Amino acid sequence: MSKIIDGKAVAVIVRGENKAEIASLKEEGLNPKLAVILAGDDPASVIYTRSIEKACSNAGALFEAFSFKDAGDEDEVVEVIKRLNMDNSVHGIMIMLPLPKRMNKQRILEAVSPLKDVDGVHPLNRAYNLSNNEGLFPSTPQSCIELMVRNGLPIEGKHAVLVGRGESVGKPLIYMLLNQNATVTICHTRTRDLAYHTRQADILIAAAGVARMITADMVKPGAIVVDVGINEMEDGGICGDVDFDNVLPVAGAITPVPGGVGSLTTALIIKNLLKAIKLSKKRH
């Protein structure tokens, strides 16, 4: 029988760890604080900002949002980031993406101090991931690794096939898997004979953003299947990149959507906030 990897159950454990660590820091007189920059009015970004605020509140961390409703002035956004970088009471900074098209995304992301970059988007943190050094890394690919590790599913020595090469999930995940000593094959929507590659996977990770593209005949019996996709359906619900119901009997373990990878991301943002505090102490 296939094991359903419960992201919500892992999130409960991580949230408990975060809460305990924040309580301990408060006893030392340190109040962890996260600042979020929201430029424009992207509906998903507004919802995500609220969920992070709630996560901070539940964990006992401080939270402050800086909104630029009319897409703001790029220079003004950069000035706010610079001020937050210098503010010792702020330990983490997160830029909500996507930014308005008329803003220079690279300039804004690079303005954030790498030591406060809780979303792991600064080029220096990307390089630390690539070179297997200590840094702050994106929460969604981290969630994929965390779910496997905390469910006792071995990664080392396994053949991981990753379908998706996006900047926020696919590319960082390549190096996270390599750093766990997996053998990695990278596929994407233009890969020829995709099913040939996916059928060889001990670990199959779907992160292409195409609804139910991974079907049962594309999965090796007993494989671990991690579904990163979040796709809107006509009835208003969401589904993943994996045809869950049909893949379930074939897979050895599988993450559901919802209730899988996405359940853990906000808890890992808080975990990154706490890691930022440790890294800052170490490097100062």
UniProtKB/TrEMBL annotation:
Molecular functions (GO terms): methenyltetrahydrofolate cyclohydrolase activity; methylenetetrahydrofolate dehydrogenase (NADP+) activity
Chain residues that bind NADP(+): 164-166, 230
Keywords, comma-separated and alphabetical: Amino-acid biosynthesis, Histidine biosynthesis, Hydrolase, Methionine biosynthesis, Multifunctional enzyme, NADP, One-carbon metabolism, Oxidoreductase, Purine biosynthesis
Enzyme Commission number(s) from the entry: 1.5.1.5, 3.5.4.9
Pathway where it operates: One-carbon metabolism; tetrahydrofolate interconversion
Annotated ranges, domain Tetrahydrofolate dehydrogenase/cyclohydrolase catalytic: 5-119
InterPro entries: Aminoacid_DH-like_N_sf (IPR046346), NAD(P)-bd_dom_sf (IPR036291), THF_DH/CycHdrlase (IPR000672), THF_DH/CycHdrlase_cat_dom (IPR020630), THF_DH/CycHdrlase_NAD-bd_dom (IPR020631)
Catalytic activity line of the entry: (6R)-5,10-methylene-5,6,7,8-tetrahydrofolate + NADP(+) = (6R)-5,10-methenyltetrahydrofolate + NADPH; (6R)-5,10-methenyltetrahydrofolate + H2O = (6R)-10-formyltetrahydrofolate + H(+)
Organism domain of life: Bacteria
Assembly behavior: Homodimer.
Name of this chain's protein: Bifunctional protein FolD
Organism: Pelotomaculum schinkii
Annotated gene: folD
